[in-house]
Specification:
Elements lengths: L3 H11 L27 E2 L2 E2 L8 E5 L3 E6 L3 E3 L8 E4 L9 E8 L6 H13 L5 E8 L2 E10 L1 E12 L2 E9 L8 H8 L3 E2 L1
Antiparallel strand pairs: 1-2, 3-4, 4-12, 5-6, 6-7, 7-11, 8-9, 9-10, 10-11
Length: 194
């Protein structure tokens, strides 16, 4: 299981300052482009299943769905293996963001086994420190800090289904971590693996 691939991926992406247009369905443009194995379900240029909150959008594939505020920047071009990135407002040198990686598993793991595997991998990094780890509602998560080019803080949630590990990660500079954490948790609560 390569939990930290997400962290390395996020560092390289979030350090870049690039203009990303929001991929929100509108009458004049179709929903975000999907990769070959993903389909954004459309019906007259609107998503079939609607997000739970007003002013939120939904990204949906055959494998999962997630809701997010329409004012976030969304990208799902498969860059570096990520299923999508969601970017919060402009930040310092690192833009607070959320991403999803899907990784194959060698077999079914319990929530405790997933947490132990993630912890072992994080501890294998130089200068990495686990700040919190827990299984909440059957979903393991870990909050940790490490220096990967810059000192960063991560919150990673792990879900598995059909021998795949779905790793939803929030990344920020330590001093900015709490600024979007509540929003991340609201978004993460909408994440559904089918």
């Amino acid at each position: 299981m390569r939990v930290l691939a997400v962290s390395l991926l996020l560092l390289s992406v979030s350090c870049k300052k690039e203009k990303i247009e929001p991929a929100v369905p509108s009458k004049s443009s179709p929903p975000a482009r999907a990769t070959a194995d993903e389909k954004v379900v459309e019906q007259k240029n609107a998503l079939v299943s609607q997000p739970r909150k007003k002013d939120w959008a939904r990204y949906e594939t055959d494998e999962f769905s997630i809701d997010y505020p329409k004012d976030m920047l969304f990208k799902n071009d498969g860059m570096m293996g990520a299923k999508f990135f969601l970017y919060f407002k402009e930040g310092d040198s690192v833009r607070n963001n959320i991403n999803l990686m899907v990784q194959p598993l060698p077999g079914k793991l319990s929530a405790k086994q997933m947490l132990i595997a993630a912890e072992a991998e994080i501890k294998g990094l130089d200068d990495a420190k686990i700040l919190e780890k827990e299984i909440k509602g059957g979903v393991p998560f870990v909050v940790w800090e490490g220096t990967i080019g810059k000192r960063l803080r991560f919150k990673q949630l792990f879900q598995q289904k059909n021998l795949k590990n779905y790793v939803l990660t929030y990344t920020a500079l330590p001093e900015n971590f709490s600024s979007d954490l509540e929003d991340f948790e609201s978004i993460a609560a909408t994440f559904v693996v089918k």
